[in-house]
Every structure is written in C-alpha cells, then in structure tokens.
Amino acid sequence: MSTAYAASPIQRTGSTLPYRSQAAQPRPTVTDDYERWYTEGTPNNRMLLALRSGIDSEISWALDRLTASLCSRATTLFALPQEWERKRKHALESILILRNAAVNEPNAQELSEHRRTRSLILLALHNIKPETSTRIAGSSINRSLILAAMSTLNLLLSNPANVTHLTEESPALEASIKYLPLFVDKPLLDASVNYLYTHLSHPAMTKAFLLHPKMPGTLKLLVSLLLSEQTEETVSVDIGSPVHTVPSSFTTMKDHELSKEEFDRLLPIPEPQRCYEWMRTMFVSKTDGELTQVEFWNLYKDVFTPHAAQHRMLAASDVIKNVSLVFPPGQAMVLGNPQRFVVRGVDRRKERSAVEQQFKCLWDRSQCSARTFELECSWATCSHASLPKAFLRGHVLTHLPSSQSAPKDPGQMDTVSLPYENYPHPIPNPTSRPLPPPRSAKLTYKRPMAEPPSTSLTALLCIRVLFRASFASSDAAPRADEDHFGFPGVGRKAFIGIRHLLENVRIKDEALMGWITEMVDAGITGTT
Questions:
Q1: Residue 321, Cα to own-chain centre: how many angstroms?
Q2: What is the pTM of this model?
Q3: Do 239 and 444 meet the contact criterion of CB atoms below 8 Å apart?
Q4: Number of domains comprising the chain
Q5: Containing domain of residue 191, as a range?
C-alpha cells in the first residue's frame, strides 16, 4: 500500500495569488481482479510483452499473474488465434448445417450431386487417422461420435491398404463387443456388427480373435441376434387318415324283446290272462302311438305258436279286441284311403340299452326279494368264495355301478374312435377291438416368413468366418506354446456350446440354412 504527498506551495511576499487548499489525491485500487488478466490473443498483450521485455519486475509480474489465473479459473493458455478460432467455429457450424440438411431427402440428393461434395469428403477421409477413430469409438460416451467413428472405420479398414492399422486389442473391437447386446438400438447395433465383420474379414485378426477371452460370449450374442430378428409362422399338416367316432355313452332306444324269464312266466298262464300280461309286458300306453294290426298279431303269434299244442292261443280278432281292455286309450281302427288297419294309443315298450343293462339285476334268482340271500354270491358268473352273511351285502355292492358318473379329465372326449366306418359298436369285449387311427395326426412345425434383415446377415457372416477358422484343418492350426494355448480347440468348444441355440435358427434361403445345418452337425461331433 503506497501514499502520495504533495508539498504546499510557498507564498511569495506580495503575491497576489489567492490561497487555495490542496485537493485530495485518488488512492490506487488494490482489490483482487481490479486489473484485466491479459489472456487475449493479441500482439499488444501486456502479459506477452512483459514476458518478452527482459525486465525482472515485469517478468515476475507476468508469471505471478499467470499462476494466479491458472489456479483460480479455467483459463485456456494455448488458445488459437482469434482469426483461426472464428474460422474453426464457422467451419463447424457449416458442417452441422450440412449434416442437418442432409436428413431431408431432397437436400441429400442435391448435396450428393454438388461438384464439391466428393472432394470435401475425400479430403476429410484422407486427413483422418484410423487410430483417431478407433480411440473415439473405444472411449467416447457420445453415441453420435461412436456411430460416426465406427462408420468411418468400416470405410477405411475395408480397403486392404489399411490393414496395417488393425490390431488385436483395438479399442473399436472392444467397443463393438460392448455394444453388441443392445438389440433395441438398431443403428448402434448395425454399426457394431459391421465393424466386427470388417475386423474378422482379415484372417490374421480372425485367428487372434479365437484366443480373445470374450469370443465365446460374442459368438453366443451373434446367434441370439439371429433368433431375435427372425420371424416365424406355425404350420400344421394333417397326415392322419379319416377318424370315425361314436358316442361313448350311448342311450339308443330299442323295442323291448321278451326275455326267457318273462316267457317262462307267461307261457303257463291260461288265456285270456296270458294275452293281458303279454301286452302289459310288451307295450305301453301312448296317445300318439300307432301299430298296424298285422304287426300286433304277428308279435303275439311268433311267441306262442310253437307251444300252441300244449297251451291254447287266442284268435287274431280277440287279440286285437283285448287292446282296449288292457289300455283304455287304445283302440283298433281303420284309417285313410287306401285303408290301413291300425291300433292307436299304444306303442312298443322301449328300453335304453346302455342304462338298463347297466343297472339290470344279474342275481341268478327270478325273484330277488322273495327269498333270503344265500351265503355265496350268485351274481351272474361271479366265482367269489362263500362269505358270511354280514359281509355278503358289501360284496354285492361291488357289482352295482355308482349312481354318479366318474369324473373325467377335461381333455377326455365323449366319443369312441372306431377302426373303420361301420365297425360294430358296442361289442362285448371292447379291448379286442383293433387299434383305431389317431384322432390328431398333425405335424406342426415353424417356418420363416421372410428373409432375415441386413444386421442378421452380417452377424451370420461373422459366425461363418469364426466357424471356418475354428474347424480349420489341424495342419494349418497354430500349436500351443508358452504364449498361446492353441486353436481351433477353443473355437470348436464354443460352437459345441451354442449348438442348442443354432438348432432354433431358421432361414428361408436354402443356402444360408445349409450353413446353419453344417454348424449344428459340427457342434454334435466336434468335426466337419
């Protein structure tokens, strides 16, 4: 801190000048940042002149200012000259405008036909070093820069003259493997797969990649990409013969036929009581029922004529007259023209064959309730040993079906398949029936609906390149040494590991599908 003093003027004797007090002098500013930092890129920059002056005090001042500037704020020490900075800014803004304009198709067409467009692109490509794009692709977190870098590398490294720039541990290779699982980001996925194919297109890089620790995982990701992008449809082809079915639980109605027990009971009864009982056994009252008189008489005659010598029969007219006695609504009449002689109001007794046979008493006694049960089972052909009376009832219940149907599986159908049409059903022993054709004989499989997209085709090329290198002849394969554990053993193990994934890949093109089939077969045996 400094202070300035001014000497008071001495008044001369006789001086006519009036007396004036001395005005206060302004003090210097000593606060921080009171002075410019002099970081502008101008030729008359004080800091630059002070450094070049050779004066110790000026040099010390400039260095102190630089030290304070770099510690207290983000100062660009080596900035471009202002003129160059303006040109660089204008160039970047121009490129951005051209890039945004090219998104529109008419603008892109106009730019592609401009005479200076190609020279500009060629100049930019010639000035770009592959190492720069590789470093950007491997380290940048800007998606647009990564896409641009990988696209540029694909163009540069596709030229055989630039193969020398490929390395086994390229940052771009690591980046393409890192972004390969991003199936939802199609542009980045496409750029990653394209670069991976460009890298593997050179045999030396392919052999080196077989030793890469991420090779098996990359191979699995490539196959998974094929599976995620394939579109399939389900096709069913019926290869079976016609199936003939009948209801499993039939309840067909049939006319009641006189059983042997019923005949033996009716035969000794004298007429006309026998006729009455016969009608009650064979017929039922039915308002709209109708039988011809001839049919009615024939039913009676056919049963009792063979025994007419021992047991007298009624005449046909008497039998017809007895209908109204047994069934009051029934009566004999003549209908229509030509005349038909019918019996109205009666009908044949019906029996539901399945149900009535199921619940029919098969106890070998004519009157089950008329006598005491014996101690041995007399149900049909049952050969069970004699039982105490207390246990006989429980045994008889085993012959009686349940009043409730057994529960069925929801998939079980209510029909029975027959070996061929018109096969007799039911039959006494259903298990002796020949095997019928299967009800459902459909061959169901999936087939591709369309050709795979370009990303999948590129991924398939990568898989194919690795496959050919992995299953190369043993003579061409490098041997294991202190630095390498050899191949193609590692590659073969990797393809054996993805065989289950390859089995689900389906491609419409037969040639490409042949590649998949070959790789699946090699994954089974480990050889080609």
A1: 79
A2: 0.51
A3: no
A4: 4
A5: 163-234+449-525
